[in-house]
Amino acid sequence: MASNLTRKELLKQDKFTVEAEHTVDYLSTHRKEVVRYGTVALVAIVLVAAVFYYRSSRASVREQILGEAIALDNVPVGQAPPGGQSFPTQAAKNDGVTRAFAKLASDYSGSEEAYIAEYYLGAKALDAGNVDEARRKFQDAADHGNANYASLAKLALAQLDYAQNRTAEAEALLKGLMDHPTDLVSKEQAEFTWAKTIAPTKPEEARKLFQQLVSEKSEVSQIAQAAMNELPQK
Question: Which domains does the chain have, with CATH numbers?
Answer without folding.
Answer: 7-229 (1.25.40)
